[in-house]
Specification:
The chain has helices spanning about 1-50, 130-135, and strands spanning about 60-65, 70-75, 75-80, 85-90, 100-105, 110-115, 120-125. With about 140 residues, the protein is of the alpha+beta class. The chain has one domain (about 1-135).
Length: about 140
């Protein structure tokens, strides 16, 4: 009987602990994903900002992680969605054309996203190999 009471108390204690800590852990993991999305959106926008002042034909290759994400590029900003959380970072306005483009990450494989500075624009495209060979 004492063993049963002890097991019951331990189970109830574990449930109470899980119920009080569980939401905090979930909130912390969502905050980590949100911060990651913000950081990555700012990183990608900085790549574009850097290329705007770089010499023509300067290239940059960004390798995505395996997983679910969507990158949206346009003249004004970069938008990155990770696990239903969206972050946006503005792009400097210098007169170079940045075409509207959407790139989806893949859960099966990493992708390479290429950024190439052209005379009047920045090209953004996916590549199966490295950017130098396809630019």
């Amino acid at each position: 009987m004492k063993g049963f009471q002890l097991a019951t108390v331990l189970i109830i204690g574990a449930l109470l602990l899980f119920l009080t800590i569980g939401p905090a852990v979930k909130t912390a993991s969502l905050e980590a994903v949100r911060r990651s999305a913000v950081f990555q959106a700012e990183y990608i926008a900085n790549i574009i900002n850097f290329l705007q002042s770089a010499p023509v034909t300067t290239q940059y290759a960004l390798t995505t992680a395996k997983g679910s994400c969507t990158m949206l590029f346009n003249q004004m900003y970069v938008e990155l969605t990770l696990e239903n959380l969206t972050a946006r970072s503005d792009i400097l306005q210098t007169g170079l054309e940045i075409p509207k483009k959407e790139i989806k990450c893949s859960a099966e494989r990493q992708k390479t996203v290429c950024f190439v500075r052209r005379q009047s624009s920045i090209d953004i495209f996916e590549s199966e190999v490295n950017c130098i060979l396809t630019a």
